[in-house]
Specification:
single chain; about 70 residues; mainly alpha; Recoverin, domain 1; two-stranded antiparallel ribbon; 4 helices; globular
């Protein structure tokens, strides 16, 4: 996934447009992709990319998550 595609995906998941992906937005993004089963575990695993522990993923953390 190139930088433009990555940014587009981030913006799609960041539904409130604040430049950060919350746990709720992340869960909704997983649901939109059809990931209903094990949703809580997937969100918890993804939030491990939150290196500054502020409870949201910024673009750099999101990029790291998808590498």
């Amino acid at each position: 996934m190139n930088e433009v595609e990555l940014r587009a995906l981030f913006d799609q998941i960041d539904t409130d447009g604040d430049g950060r992906i919350s746990v709720v937005e992340l869960a909704e993004g997983f649901k939109a992709e059809g990931a209903q089963e094990h949703l809580a575990e997937e969100v918890e695993k993804a939030m491990k990319a939150d290196v500054n522990h502020d409870g949201v993923l910024d673009f750099e953390e999101f990029r790291t998550l998808l590498k």
